[in-house]
Amino acid sequence: MEFSEHIKTANVEDVVLRRPFYQPTKGTLCVTGHHLIFSNRGGDSARPFLLLLRNIDAIEKSVENLPSVSSGTITLKCKDLCVLQLDIPGMEECLNIASSIESLSSLETVSEMYPFFYRPPFLSLQDQWGLSSTEQHYAQMKEIHDGWRVSQVNRDYSVSPSYPPAVIVPHSIDDETLVKAARFRQGGRFPVLCYYHRETGTVIMRSSQPLSGANRKRCREDELLLQAVIDGSELGYIIDTRSSQQAQQARMTGGGFESKSCYRGWKRLHRQLEKGKVLQESLIKLVEACGDQSHSVDRWLSKLENSKWLSHVQTALSTAGLVAECVERDGHSVLVHGSEGTDTSLLVSSLAQLILDPDSRTLAGFLGLLEREWVQAGHPFQQRCAHSAYSHVRLRHEAPVFVLLLDCVWQLARQFPLAMGFSEPLLLRLAKEVYASDYGTFLCNSDQERCVTGVKERTHCLFQSLLRANERQHYSNPLYERTELAIWPSIQPPSLQWTCAFSPIQWPFDMC
Amino acid sequence: TENCKLYSRLLILYPGYGVVENVRLIDRTVSRKATVGTLYLSATHTIFVENNPETRKETWVLHSLVASVERPPTTPSGSHLVIRTKNFQVLELLVPQERDATDIHASLARLSRPEKYSELYCLSINPTANKEEREESWSFLDLQADYRRMGVPNNLWVGTPANSEYRVCDTYPSELFVPKSATPPVIVGSSKFRSRGRFPVLTYFHQDTLASICRCSQPLSGFSARSQEDEQMMQAIMKANPGSEYIYVVDTRPKLNAMANRAAGKGYENEDHYTNIKLQFIGIENIHVMRNSQQKIIDIKTPSMGDFLWGLESSGWLKHIKAVLDAGVFIAKAVAEEGVSVVVHCSDGWDRTAQACSLASVLLDPYYRTMKGLMLLIERDWVSFGHKFSHRYNHLDGDPKEVSPVIDQFVECVWQLSEQFPCAFEFNERFLIQLRRHVYSCQYGNFLGNSQKERRDMRLRERTYSLWPQLWKDRAQYVNPLYRADHTQTQGMLRPNTTPYCFKMWKGMYNRLEKSAPPRHSPADLLTAVREETQQLEQELTNHQEVAPRGTAHSGTKQERPGRPAPSTGDGSVDSPPHDYRSTQRGPPDPAMTLPLGPPKGSDPDDLSSACSDIESGVIDLSSRSSSGGDDCKDPESDEAIYCPAWSGTRGPDTGRLPC
């Protein structure tokens, strides 16, 4: 299919572009397969304004068709929460442009997306895609080589379609056992290592829920696997990111939890983290609250409370704090899971690592963490970030779990302004890239999908690009002073701030 | 020991000095950990000295900063006393003998509610009789020089002798500026038509646009009264801005309140009588609403996010802060952007008017964003123009209905601005908190009384010291390292974003007591340290270059570099225990309102260091002696250490278990 089929009017002259913090400008609007391009030739800025069509979340149009005036206005509400307005002379042109934007911005075929066409001069497709592999990560952690090994059991993605080909597991557990344990976990996501804490020699693992079901099925291999994790030591903690009631209910649909009698030495704690639709609606309400025009503080605070967003931030940080506390203070290993193990589990495990691990708080370390715990670990980015807060489309799998992570990291960075090697602009940049990007990093839902569609061969990697010298400088925290200590966030409500990053008129960061 | 000697000496100095032993200071933040020590009640402070010979930490609370002392029912272990201070700190004591507790309670109740000015700190402690130094302290700021800085007097505005000896208005300063065309009869006539005689006078003159900000009280217009002189006065103000065709009259009250005042023969300007005025209501609530609102924000219990946000909303505090800032923004825009003069009033013209005028000045003039500028501004718009400090901040035991956090709101607005414009202010948050503290504490004579006349009658300049040179002397700790005089933010008018989400709760002010609030990393402290280090290095470099030709080593001249805050101290937070992540949000209420009496680490100096700054003879001894006694009380961190004890070790006592 050719993009040109969707483009009825490619160029319109004398269009007025209105966007926050800029004077309205008149220029030429051009629709291409992936972009809206706006240039004002006579204007002061030589660079045209470029908007990825994929970034457009909702489009509103209004036309006026009188004998004297025929014109239209298109309001573009973007996934990065910017709101732009285009005043277009000519009703027909306006409608054509609007329909082109509508169809082009909702194309779903991954291999037609812009990252497959983006070829900047400063990057080469021959460069390594991604920062590190499981094997490389393992190789760097010499201290775990005795107890842990890299397993290639998922090399063809047959054991778990959403896991990467290689994972780190206890040395004593062979691949055969893993295969069996995987059958007992939703989506085959058996417990794997995500963090080793040197000081106490304990680990953070993550997985999906066990499929014990209504009949309280057991799986010897799964029990063995967990037994091997706490090998000898008396205790481990399972942090279930669902309420105990939810976990009980999950049994009715084939899911479940680790019962005390079957997993000796493991204690289960429930902390309910919201996800899915609840989280998406929370974001929608938050953005709506930020855009409220009434200028009333009461209304703002009431809407902010009603959105529950900050409560989600608080719960996420508090659960991550609990995990970190188990590992650092109590010296016990932790397994984190919810149901699928692709959302809240990742949120909690990555936040816990930021609290504990100074290496994950550097710029490169943080991006590495995101790559391991989100991209490789199979967070379904494409499903979760299909739409943002403005879309009128009926929601399916959307959920701003990653955005919630970014907000939690922002809170950490606010409370510990010296401890993070990266700065707020990086978080804002990531929040934008996750919805619409020139890079392939956040495409697809799993490593397997990325291999099938050739993402790694035919797109560029965002993380690699962010680590180039000039970008690195832009996203580094000038106040950074590495601390080896854990950074325990305060979860008291006054310590958690709202950020204006969710406002439609946030400060513009590099639009092009 | 040294300290005992010191206190016995004090006992001699101040008869009636109370000493109670085996008192427990309960720190609710660390599992109700208590420290045993001795409580001393001096004429000016409550002092708790820890028994532990290793530390002997001291906690000082100034009597004039005590807001309330509560006595919960006696328990078998003794009697509790809960002291709440005006800067939102809480001290909980357990006294073994009930009789002692009753005595302390009664003494504190009396000491914290002085009935006469002479009982206040700045008057009760006789300063060292250094007349010269004292006089010098009062001449540190020169209001007239600041008027000259704005170009006043000039051919539009002139000084008037009308109020010399406070003849026309006893709550105004004696030196006032009015439009050149305002004749004495106009001034007197206008003052007769204004509440408490507070006729329109100049407070700020904007040289670029020639527009001005004037202030006054409400007109005595009732439903129909008018005054030719008052109308002429307004006309004169407009004429003093050449080329302008109208003036704004900003009534900072809600319109309903203004209308209600008409029934009492007061009210607002009738636009039919005054030619060329545009009346604008802003809607800042009255002092009673503000008092209740602040109480609510102090009382917010913060277990869950929902409750916190609900509490914040229902307190209305941020809404009021926004209203005050909106008033300032309106005036500043009128003056700078439209070039139109503004006359500001509320009811009496000494609360909301002071807030609005001074904020407008901060927004308009970069000078008021410097330390000295802000001092001058407070001296002008608040002190000289008769803001009723003693009534509003309860200096003497008086009518509780007169008390209201009016200047708190101004200070907080400046803080909100500094959050939006981090490079625009020369001072930091600490400066603002310290300023506010002194307004309440009366350690200096600046804020005593309710008007310039009262202060003159009390001869405060002869009997007390001025705060300003002291703050200036300590300016190193109040500097905002991000301040850049040449930054675009710093120049010209500030145009803040006043969207509701831009207003934040001032944690540094209201939540200094947050449960186990670890002193967070402070970028400001780091930057200050880095800057000092850089200067030091540059100094060394210069030294080296000077000596280099001779090629001699000069380890001798090498100075100790001020180190950056080491992670273990400067970043004490990272060492602190995890928060209580185990309890669910709805768990038992956190004793959130108990933390250090002393200020957070590295923040404003504790009571002692400022109390004993250096002027009061008795206290000088105290400070120096206790320092020599091995207790570096002036170390702002020492106080803190009481509250962050054992957890620097590996595990707290209760970390072995996890609830299942």
UniProtKB/TrEMBL annotation, chain A:
Any one GO biological process: negative regulation of autophagy
InterPro entries reported in the protein's UniProt record: Myotubularin, Myotubularin-like_Pase_dom, PH-GRAM_MTMR6-9, PH-like_dom_sf, Prot-tyrosine_phosphatase-like
Annotated Gene Ontology cellular component terms: cytoplasm
CDD domains: PTP-MTMR9 (cd14536)
A UniProt-annotated Pfam family: PH-GRAM_MTMR6-like
PROSITE patterns found in the cross-reference section: PPASE_MYOTUBULARIN (PS51339)
GO MF, any single term: protein phosphatase binding
Domain Myotubularin phosphatase: 128-503
Sequence similarity: Belongs to the protein-tyrosine phosphatase family. Non-receptor class myotubularin subfamily.
Name of protein: Myotubularin phosphatase domain-containing protein
UniProtKB/TrEMBL annotation, chain B:
A Pfam family hit: PH-GRAM_MTMR6-like
Alphabetized InterPro entries for the sequence: Myotubularin, Myotubularin-like_Pase_dom, PH-GRAM_MTMR6-9, PH-like_dom_sf, Prot-tyrosine_phosphatase-like, Tyr_Pase_AS, Tyr_Pase_cat
Active site location: C346 (phosphocysteine intermediate)
Record's keyword terms, sorted: Hydrolase, Lipid metabolism
Keyword Lipid metabolism: yes
Biased composition (Low complexity): 617-630
Domain Myotubularin phosphatase, chain residue ranges per copy: 137-510
Transmembrane segments: none
UniProt binding sites for substrate: N286, I287, C346, S347, D348, G349, W350, D351, R352
GO cellular component, one term: cytoplasm
Region (Disordered), start-end ranges: 541-660
GO molecular function: phosphatidylinositol-3,5-bisphosphate phosphatase activity; phosphatidylinositol-3-phosphate phosphatase activity
CDD domains: PTP-MTMR6-like
Similarity comment text for this entry: Belongs to the protein-tyrosine phosphatase family. Non-receptor class myotubularin subfamily.
Name of protein: Myotubularin phosphatase domain-containing protein
Species, as recorded: Esox lucius
